[in-house]
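Write out this protein's structure.
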Amino acid sequence: MLSEKNLILNSKNPLALFVLCVIALCSSIAVSAQTSKRDSLAYKLQRLESTSRFNPKDTTHINLLVRLAFSYRYLDADSLYSVAKRALDYSTEIDFTYGKIKGLDALGIYYYDKGERKKSMPLFKEALELAKEIDDIESEVSIINTLAQNYSFEGNYAEALNWNLKGIDLAKKIENQEMLSILNENIAGLYAEQKDFKNALMFYDTVQRINRGLGNEVIDAETQSNMASLYKDAKDFKNAMFNINRSINTFEKNKIYDWLAYAYEVKGDIYLDQEKFKWALYWYDQSNMLFKHQIEDDRIKIQLMNGMAKVYFGLEKDSLSLEYAKKGLALSKKIKSLQGQIDCSETLYKVHKKNGDNPEALAYLETFKTLSDSLSKDKNKQSLSLLETKLHYEQEKQELIESNEAALAKQRNYIYFSIIILLILSIITFVIRRSENIQRKLNKELKEKSQAITQREAQLHEINKTNTKLFSIIGHDLRGPIGGLQGILKMFTDGEITTKELVSFIPKLKTDVENISFTLNNLLSWGINQLNGVVTKPKRVSLSQLVVNNIQLLSEIAKSKSIKIINQLPENPRIWADNNQIDIVIRNLLSNAIKFTPDNGLITIDAKEKDNMWQISVRDTGIGMAPEMQKSIFKDSSNVTTYGTNNEKGTGLGLSLCKEMVHKNKGKIWVESVPRKGTTFFFTVPKAQSRYQKAS
């Protein structure tokens, strides 16, 4: 728990009066800070209860009641009881198990703090059973911790150790490091009660390791204050003072006033054991000041009252010593604290003996002796219980070690036997492997030759595909127009048509020649690509110039279909690409757009900046294409040949060639199309940098 102190000096000293005023002011602030959290919960509760649709049995309301109940601990026991009772009643009416668990837990704590452990234990155990029913391990661990403290306060250290060990197992299961710290610290406290400082410090080492992982300075300070009490009992005042000072600094900084009251009381104990009575009184007064301002913890207050009685006895202020010792004894009887009754009875015996009040002294001596003998017997039993528990765990550990060693010995025998069998198998395997190696070499040679044959077959297959495609193009796309041209010329030379009639065929002949030229150019570029003969040489290229040149080149064909081509490129965009390859891409996309756009249509060329790329689009108002066609047109194996709106014949090479050229220039190409509404081809090329770039 916690502690704060008060400075008591000669009231005639002006400086002392000033310090007392400052302390009173600080204590007032302390109480205000201590109650701020409780006031915040009370305010939230008041707001909830004032809403028009408020239902007292709503789980949100019950959860607020539970939190408020726990906030009253050490401050207002009656409020703790009344709020916890309301939460439990509401939870029972709606069968809200979590609310019942917390309500029972809070009521158990109320009776526990009052020293009425016979009433608190059934409440804790009922809450524990409910937590197990709904598998609420967090609540289980919390209740087990309280049960362990309850048994410890009764002096039943063996049972307390048992519950702490159960709690540690559960806390490990849910990886609750904070509860692991608390439970290990509880065990350290059990050993400290038995003056077994070695084992106590061993558990404190575990606690400090866990605390370092938590990184919570308040939790660490709580451990330091308990360790200070341990070092004080061990008469190691240097370590005791070091730990208590660190904990006090943390509690003061974070305004943890309940623990601060305890820490002040422990620091007073340290000075008392060194018979530095004035300093002890100073820190006891600080702790007492906090208790006067509504901090309620009778267990710590008993220690404080007896400590102050001892201090006043040392300062030869016997009347004050009697006053505080009697207060401590009354509190001890109230909460049935056997150790408190022993300590306060001893102090009262000494004071009465000094004052010559032998009957009173004798009465307190008898009480002291009787209770001490009883407690000594209990402690001896509990020491034996702790020792038996420890020996039991050590015995289990030893049995486990011996069992593991026996298992290892058995495993070693198996291993030796296996090694012998393995050696025999190895000899047999060696003979078999030798012949297998020879066979493997032959198989490897055969496989390599088979792979070479398969690879050659694939190459021949690709060559055949290329040849087939070339012959198809030459046979269908070139032979037709050339044959038509040849036929017209033969008719003219044979005199079957006149010069005037020949002239009328010239526009058609011009179109056929242009188609032949366009097809031959694509065919040449594609053929070189197939033979891996094209080397991409990027440089700074004017995209506008390429577009303008191709618009001019195809303007006659577009004009013949009354198609308008609109150039919407931004001002002078520069790309980093191979001039000839991108020229082929733009020419093919424009040609396709003209081919598949009906008369009086519209073609738009645009470019947009996308990060470090230019995205060029060629959009037409043509016939569009079906989704199936969109998926297949860019495939390398595609040989799709379609007819334009005026039955223009294509080779099927254009888009395949566009894809290869764009990819060689580190770009992408794709299409978006809606049947009967139009098509847009997109492709990207890198932007030219402002500085000179080396060709790749």
